[in-house]
Protein backbone atom coordinates (compact mmCIF):
# COMPACT_ATOMS: atom_id res chain seq x y z
CA UNK A 1 0.00 0.00 0.00
CA UNK A 2 0.88 3.40 -0.70
CA UNK A 3 1.86 5.73 2.14
CA UNK A 4 -0.10 8.58 0.67
CA UNK A 5 -3.23 6.48 0.36
CA UNK A 6 -2.85 5.30 3.97
CA UNK A 7 -2.35 8.82 5.14
CA UNK A 8 -5.37 10.04 3.21
CA UNK A 9 -7.47 7.10 4.51
CA UNK A 10 -6.42 7.88 8.06
CA UNK A 11 -7.26 11.56 7.52
CA UNK A 12 -10.69 10.60 6.15
CA UNK A 13 -11.32 8.23 9.08
CA UNK A 14 -10.14 10.93 11.49
CA UNK A 15 -12.43 13.49 9.88
CA UNK A 16 -15.39 11.07 10.06
CA UNK A 17 -14.57 10.32 13.70
CA UNK A 18 -14.17 14.04 14.38
CA UNK A 19 -17.52 14.84 12.68
CA UNK A 20 -19.24 12.01 14.57
CA UNK A 21 -17.73 13.18 17.87
CA UNK A 22 -18.66 16.81 17.18
CA UNK A 23 -22.21 15.87 16.19
CA UNK A 24 -23.12 13.16 18.72
CA UNK A 25 -20.57 13.00 21.55
CA UNK A 26 -19.40 16.58 22.04
CA UNK A 27 -22.82 18.32 22.52
CA UNK A 28 -23.88 16.11 25.49
CA UNK A 29 -20.44 16.57 27.07
CA UNK A 30 -20.53 20.35 26.65
CA UNK A 31 -24.14 20.37 27.80
CA UNK A 32 -23.18 18.38 30.91
CA UNK A 33 -20.21 20.67 31.54
CA UNK A 34 -22.37 23.78 31.11
CA UNK A 35 -25.02 22.35 33.43
CA UNK A 36 -22.35 21.49 35.96
CA UNK A 37 -20.86 24.99 35.69
CA UNK A 38 -24.29 26.59 36.10
CA UNK A 39 -25.01 24.35 39.11
CA UNK A 40 -21.70 25.32 40.68
CA UNK A 41 -22.36 29.00 39.95
CA UNK A 42 -25.89 28.65 41.38
CA UNK A 43 -24.48 26.90 44.46
CA UNK A 44 -21.90 29.63 44.96
CA UNK A 45 -24.56 32.30 44.49
CA UNK A 46 -26.84 30.48 46.95
CA UNK A 47 -23.95 30.19 49.41
CA UNK A 48 -23.26 33.92 49.10
CA UNK A 49 -26.96 34.65 49.50
CA UNK A 50 -27.12 32.33 52.52
CA UNK A 51 -24.10 34.08 54.04
CA UNK A 52 -25.79 37.44 53.55
CA UNK A 53 -29.04 36.11 55.01
CA UNK A 54 -27.13 34.61 57.93
CA UNK A 55 -25.42 37.92 58.61
CA UNK A 56 -28.77 39.69 58.36
CA UNK A 57 -30.40 37.10 60.64
CA UNK A 58 -27.56 37.44 63.15
CA UNK A 59 -27.99 41.20 63.11
CA UNK A 60 -31.77 40.86 63.67
CA UNK A 61 -31.15 38.36 66.47
CA UNK A 62 -28.71 40.76 68.12
CA UNK A 63 -31.23 43.59 67.82
CA UNK A 64 -34.00 41.44 69.26
CA UNK A 65 -31.72 40.29 72.07
CA UNK A 66 -30.88 43.90 72.86
CA UNK A 67 -34.58 44.80 72.78
CA UNK A 68 -35.38 41.81 74.99
CA UNK A 69 -32.69 42.84 77.45
CA UNK A 70 -34.12 46.35 77.56
CA UNK A 71 -37.64 44.98 78.06
CA UNK A 72 -36.43 42.67 80.80
CA UNK A 73 -34.57 45.53 82.48
CA UNK A 74 -37.72 47.67 82.31
CA UNK A 75 -39.84 44.84 83.70
CA UNK A 76 -37.37 44.24 86.51
CA UNK A 77 -37.35 47.94 87.33
CA UNK A 78 -41.16 48.02 87.25
CA UNK A 79 -41.30 44.92 89.45
CA UNK A 80 -38.88 46.50 91.93
CA UNK A 81 -40.95 49.69 91.97
CA UNK A 82 -44.13 47.67 92.46
CA UNK A 83 -42.46 45.63 95.19
CA UNK A 84 -41.29 48.78 96.96
CA UNK A 85 -44.77 50.25 96.62
CA UNK A 86 -46.28 47.08 98.08
CA UNK A 87 -43.80 47.16 100.95
CA UNK A 88 -44.60 50.81 101.65
CA UNK A 89 -48.31 50.06 101.43
CA UNK A 90 -47.91 47.13 103.82
CA UNK A 91 -45.92 49.34 106.21
CA UNK A 92 -48.63 51.98 106.07
CA UNK A 93 -51.34 49.38 106.74
CA UNK A 94 -49.29 47.89 109.57
CA UNK A 95 -48.71 51.34 111.05
CA UNK A 96 -52.42 52.12 110.82
CA UNK A 97 -53.27 48.76 112.39
CA UNK A 98 -50.73 49.36 115.17
CA UNK A 99 -52.18 52.81 115.81
CA UNK A 100 -55.66 51.28 115.95
CA UNK A 101 -54.50 48.58 118.37
CA UNK A 102 -52.79 51.20 120.57
CA UNK A 103 -55.91 53.39 120.50
CA UNK A 104 -58.09 50.39 121.39
CA UNK A 105 -55.70 49.46 124.21
CA UNK A 106 -55.75 53.03 125.53
CA UNK A 107 -59.53 53.12 125.38
CA UNK A 108 -59.73 49.77 127.15
CA UNK A 109 -57.26 50.87 129.83
CA UNK A 110 -59.21 54.10 130.31
CA UNK A 111 -62.38 52.07 130.65
CA UNK A 112 -60.67 49.78 133.18
CA UNK A 113 -59.48 52.83 135.14
CA UNK A 114 -63.06 54.18 135.19
CA UNK A 115 -64.34 50.78 136.32
CA UNK A 116 -61.65 50.59 139.02
CA UNK A 117 -62.56 54.10 140.24
CA UNK A 118 -66.22 53.16 140.36
CA UNK A 119 -65.39 50.00 142.31
CA UNK A 120 -63.17 52.04 144.64
CA UNK A 121 -65.95 54.59 145.15
CA UNK A 122 -68.39 51.82 145.99
CA UNK A 123 -65.92 50.36 148.48
CA UNK A 124 -65.25 53.80 149.98
CA UNK A 125 -68.99 54.42 150.26
CA UNK A 126 -69.45 51.04 151.91
CA UNK A 127 -66.61 51.75 154.32
CA UNK A 128 -68.01 55.19 155.05
CA UNK A 129 -71.37 53.65 155.84
CA UNK A 130 -69.70 51.06 158.09
CA UNK A 131 -67.71 53.78 159.80
CA UNK A 132 -70.82 55.86 160.33
CA UNK A 133 -72.63 52.84 161.77
CA UNK A 134 -69.82 52.18 164.16
CA UNK A 135 -69.63 55.82 165.16
CA UNK A 136 -73.38 56.01 165.70
CA UNK A 137 -73.54 52.81 167.70
CA UNK A 138 -71.03 54.03 170.14
CA UNK A 139 -71.11 57.21 172.04
CA UNK A 140 -69.44 60.22 170.65
CA UNK A 141 -66.00 60.34 172.08
CA UNK A 142 -63.16 62.25 170.44
CA UNK A 143 -60.62 59.55 171.11
CA UNK A 144 -62.85 56.71 169.79
CA UNK A 145 -63.83 58.83 166.83
CA UNK A 146 -60.16 59.47 165.95
CA UNK A 147 -59.38 55.76 166.32
CA UNK A 148 -62.22 54.80 163.98
CA UNK A 149 -61.10 57.38 161.41
CA UNK A 150 -57.55 56.11 161.50
CA UNK A 151 -58.86 52.56 161.15
CA UNK A 152 -60.91 53.66 158.10
CA UNK A 153 -57.87 55.34 156.59
CA UNK A 154 -55.87 52.16 156.92
CA UNK A 155 -58.62 50.20 155.19
CA UNK A 156 -58.71 52.63 152.28
TrEMBL record:
InterPro entries given in the database record = ATP_synth_B-like_membr_sf (IPR028987), ATP_synth_b/b'su_bac/chlpt (IPR002146), ATP_synth_F0_bsu_bac (IPR005864), ATP_synthase_B_chain (IPR050059)
CDD domains, alphabetized: ATP-synt_Fo_b
Q: Which UniProt keywords apply?
A: ATP synthesis, Cell membrane, CF(0), Coiled coil, Hydrogen ion transport, Ion transport, Membrane, Transmembrane, Transmembrane helix, Transport
One Gene Ontology MF term: proton-transporting ATPase activity, rotational mechanism
Q: Which membrane topology describes this protein? A: Single-pass membrane protein
Q: From the Swiss-Prot or TrEMBL record, state where the protein is found.
A: Cell membrane; Endomembrane system
Q: Which GO cellular component term is one of those annotated?
A: endomembrane system
Question: Per its UniProt record, what SUPFAM superfamilies does this chain match?
Answer: F1F0 ATP synthase subunit B, membrane domain
Taking the record's annotation, the residue ranges forming a coiled coil are 44-122
Family from the record: Belongs to the ATPase B chain family.
Q: What does this protein do?
A: Component of the F(0) channel, it forms part of the peripheral stalk, linking F(1) to F(0). The b'-subunit is a diverged and duplicated form of b found in plants and photosynthetic bacteria.
Q: Quaternary structure?
A: F-type ATPases have 2 components, F(1) - the catalytic core - and F(0) - the membrane proton channel. F(1) has five subunits: alpha(3), beta(3), gamma(1), delta(1), epsilon(1). F(0) has four main subunits: a(1), b(2) and c(10-14). The alpha and beta chains form an alternating ring which encloses part of the gamma chain. F(1) is attached to F(0) by a central stalk formed by the gamma and epsilon chains, while a peripheral stalk is formed by the delta and b chains. F-type ATPases have 2 components, F(1) - the catalytic core - and F(0) - the membrane proton channel. F(1) has five subunits: alpha(3), beta(3), gamma(1), delta(1), epsilon(1). F(0) has three main subunits: a(1), b(2) and c(10-14). The alpha and beta chains form an alternating ring which encloses part of the gamma chain. F(1) is attached to F(0) by a central stalk formed by the gamma and epsilon chains, while a peripheral stalk is formed by the delta and b chains.
Q: What's this protein's name?
A: ATP synthase subunit b
- Species of origin reads Aquabacterium commune
Give the encoding gene's name: atpF
